[in-house]
């Protein structure tokens, strides 16, 4: 390298300062700004300006800002990355629920925007040595009032579900979210939102089944329609008030449904509440309400959700659940809210571990409740109290510890001999 | 960024125009051109020229041109990308063939060329939440008359099979291609082609089994030899005449073969024609003939293919099939032909959707036929008529709609109660 | 491109030499060197220097040096790559062990360092159309005396096991290494090493089970503690003396263990030695000794390893094995040793195939031995003599041929009817 440097210097030293700066450009937008300045100063002529402007279209800026690898040119943008979460869990009734460790998520993705208005993402998870397609979609952003997405992506249903696993406050989503949320399905959907004002968002779409539902087994693929509406009349940094509601009507695959949840610990080898398969279901209606608030380092979040099952020639069981939690950043950071999607976003610690800082520290406590007993179905009841401590070493690296006390458990499967487990679990997480 | 810009300007504004342009270079070849010009103009001296020339070897150009991410330096080149296809299908006899949707292909790859003459590609498919290794090879391109490839790649057999799924005219390849083409196998092969003249190509190789054929199950891995010869006496843009032939001799794994095909809809949960497993097969000979022509926006393509099975101590069944199709680009684009491989290539629409254009629109119709009845084997007969409409929104994004009428079906498995299904299917596709 | 070039030239030709050179920079460290020079020469002022220094933090250098794709900025570094190995094997007793070919390894990874002191790697293998998570960890390098790693990575146990499959001398690791080495597990560990002096290294950690051990099957996940200590009193290029020892104490999952090995040919569909599952194992102690030396193009390497199994209420079987080998680079290259890890590293051929060279040629011979008979367990005995020829076409591309003579076989499973197979196997390998 040194040799390279010296040759360059002998050739013409003058341009070098700029050359380095140019490498730092995130893309052609900044180039245009620069050309504007140069034109104004008279350094370049108008015709030179015009010609140079054209050349910026082929430039590609490379960025590692924020610990992520991105490429950007005038009409294309790419990102290559992933996430890794390593978990361990201890159960006090280790005879029923076995202590252990696992890779919770191991994902790689490539995403981008090409030809100005076409976005895509292809993301796979390799946890447990199995492949699971996650986001896998094509999106058109050229319409004025809505972005259209086709492929595999999350149905617009539940604030907690739609907030990325990279950013959720506790290690696992709350009991009713795990049991009821449709999560990703193959479908086509739209997303609209206001710029400012009430900061409303609207997500809507029609969806088939999940990717791994093998159509070749002769099953009749179900389909559903979902919609979610949110608003955030206050949405400043550190000051947010958010409300929303959502619903899904679905005709299930092979007229079968099943609702179940682990005790907010993914390593648990048993679900404590589980309806088993319910047959002859004509359709289900799943709906919920959500609210959240951020006041500086404090935040609150909660949801109520309910599932009505319409059974052909039988009783119609209804299940429901809710959760509420509070979070406090001891180091003063506010939870970040994304107005365009109506979900929570990445927290950026004020100081960074490894660069002399202590990172961000967050305390949280959650109460969650689910009732899967109704109309002859005895799926059980459960309430979990969770206390969580999160340490954000950097914006992309987080360590989590959760203590969970299972309470008021009605456990029809007798998994735990009616004892209510205490759980301690920890996670190391990075996204890139 | 603005701060960065201003610092740079204060340092030395002069170099900036060039610095930006240099970022746009695709690689060191263009750098050399530039140095040539500068030397000629006297901007740099001969000794500066020589020294600078050496430095270009370490330069890496980044390109997002055409919606794909590439890296290129003097002696290495890398590409990271993939493809995503999202399908949905409707069958009029939904009791037998179930409507549904799926991710048809979800692939990521990394490929490149290192140390001048060594190429590689590693490509995986994750559709259906399963891993399938696709192209996975090392290639040496340093010989004068042939490129040598070792690894997992397509046997040289059939124009339709060898044309990438990104570029085929209909959503699925024709009935006999699905039933007979060996596709990718582990092997070693050569590829030669003329530069101009008759534009001939020759592909040849010896191949073992497919990647997922687990040798550990105690099976005797089969092996085969394949060759394909093509020529294109006319091969200009919008004016192509192509002929070819191909053959494969194979000793099958465990002396077993099976030929079957879905009704040109991959979501179909049943194959309508299927020989079942044929045992005691000493060897098979598969061969075919191919022809194609492009006349401006019109093109024709067809193949005839046949399989002779040599059964030890039994009758030798022979199966065959053919297809022919025509395509017309309403927007005037010609189908693109690649002389080095004798296959069809990416169509570039004249205008791009999202940038004010309407993309390219293509109408096609195909007739395909297969006969799997012979010498006591009753695999069935089928003829499919397909009408297709393709919309190329950008060079890398395509939407397809196919209507398929199954005809003259002899369906020994009675999958469809002898009814002949009508199928409507659609695809959204991107490659990057 | 030509148009771009010309525009640039007309704008200002002077900066171009430098601009190209800057592209070649590997990162901001070299930029700082350059600014130092420019400041000294008076080309830039001190205040310009200070301001420009700040801008270098956002620069990203792209490198394809050595056939690998890397990105580097002031506080982040990324690498995207993989490896591909294509094997074929012939057995002289083809009735028992079936000839065949396979993709031995097909890996992609993304790794990096973010926020100065945080490293990560996420690597997956797709060989055999199955997913296997390999390195998947987060590492903190900000401590003075140790790097801390959490996730899935190799336990510090055995020189041969810890040397990458890209760099091992023979196609497969020796019999006892395959049978006994714990390889990758979920865990947390530290690694320390001296800078110079005795070149000692210390690896240590506590580990759970492997990634694919599904905790949900109700098994009790085992755990272990491992440590490895090495030193290299001589460690110059072409002159190395290395010693080490290692041990692991483990309480196995479900109190079950099994030791077995293929005959140093992965395509072999049977393991010739195999203890079968041993139950009621309270704990195991696995330990070994290692030594290696490099004398110019010659090198020696060997290990002795032993496993003590503590069975509850039964005899305690002890198994052991060893191997020793010599390697000679006909073309004079020395084996490369990495002092920071106490393992062997990439060999760089003196000349490169495809650029007029012949690459590096290496001859090796290995003797390996394993004894799985003890205390009523009859897992068998085996000794293998291997002769290997390696051709390093480039630093990242290697072709290997191994002849293996199985000897002194006691084969309790009667896989081969007590005959001792001769094996010939070959590999084509690239990493990127």
Q: What would the principal axes of the Cα set say about the shape of chain A?
A: globular
What oligomeric state is this? homotrimer
Low-confidence stretches of chain A: 1-31
Helix-residue proportion of chain A? 10-25%
Largest sheet of chain A: 16 strands, antiparallel, barrel
> If you consult CATH, what is the topology of the largest domain in chain A?
Porin
| Mean pLDDT over all positions of chain A | 89
The total of beta strands of chain A comes to 22
What portion of residues of chain A belong to β-strands?
Answer: over 45%
Q: Largest interface, per-chain counts? A: A-B, 83 and 70 residues
Backbone CA Rg of chain A: 25 Å
Tell me the strand order in the biggest sheet of chain A: 3-4-5-6-7-8-9-10-11-14-15-16-19-20-21-22
Number of domains of chain A: 2
Which structural class should the secondary elements of chain A be placed in? mainly beta
Query: Any idea of the CATH class of the largest domain in chain A?
Result: Mainly Beta
Give the SSE string of chain A: HHHHEEEEEEEHHEEEEEEEEEEEEEEE
CATH architecture of the largest domain in chain A: Beta Barrel
How would you describe this protein?
3 copies of one chain form a homotrimer. The first copy, chain A, is built from 6 helices and 22 strands. With 432 residues, chain A is mainly β. Chain A folds into 2 domains: 15-56, no CATH class; 83-105 and 160-431, Porin. At the A-B interface, helix 1, helix 2, helix 3, helix 4 and strand 1 of A face helix 1, helix 2, helix 4, strand 3 and strand 4 of B.
